[in-house]
Amino acid sequence: MSGVPELVTLHVWRIGRAALPGALARMAAHPARLRRTTGVRFGKLLGTGTGTGFGPGDADLTRWAALAVWDRAADAAGFDASPVGRSWARIARSSVRVDLRPLTSRGEWSGRRPFGEPSGGRVAGPVLALTRARLRARRAATFWRAVPPVAAALHAAPGLLARFGVGEAPLGWQGTVSVWRDPADLVAFAYRHPEHRAAITRTPTEGWYAEELFARFEVRDVVGDRAVLGWVADGDAATAKDGRA
Prior knowledge:
Blueprint (H helix, E strand, L loop, with lengths): L6 E9 L4 H17 L3 E10 L9 E12 L2 H4 L6 H9 E16 L19 E9 L4 H16 L4 E8 L5 E8 L2 H10 L1 H13 L2 E16 L21
Antiparallel strand pairs: 1-3, 1-4, 2-3, 2-6, 4-8, 5-7, 5-8, 6-7
């Protein structure tokens, strides 16, 4: 895979607990269908969590997501009418779609570079940061012990609009999604907050990850119910919630 995609979309659905069996069935059946959707060059179905721990107890079984990478924005317009989009819509109480333009991307996901090698660019509005990692089993315990201080710092970070955990499996395959009021707020947390800087410093020496990816995107549009993301209207992270129903 090469080149920067024209559009990346993040679709998030909120379901009732009675629909959980249907959601689990879709998580098993839909990964291949998502990849076969016209125009999708990379796609992942994801469970979500609060982002505070990454263990099974952190999972939010009422919120599910899909990430799709598109070569052409025009193809993305057909997602809601696709088999995957229609199927999730049938069980969703509410949903939201976030349209994204890749700004930077480092690392790999399932052995691929899904967002190419974007060259950045000036952004005046909100940005989304996506982290994703596959943990080494023998290093997982030390990683989980390191998470709570960073998660607490993120929860209180100025300019944070939304944040939640994502994962391809309950354990060992996980990441975070965070939305920021502007790039300066994201940079201030990522590189200046002591808890996060300490975690970055430990990463190479601890050898937590067998594979990792960090990407940053311009938020071009948010369509639907922002509460599904736990969106905070004024970016006051001190009042942020995870949007759990």
